Amino acid sequence: MFILKNLLFATAKILEIACNLYFWVIILNAIFSWVNASPGNPIVNAVRIASDFVMDPIRHRFNLVLGMIDFTPIIVIMLISFLENFLVRTLLDISARL
Question: Largest Cα–Cα distance in the chain?
Answer without folding.
Answer: 55
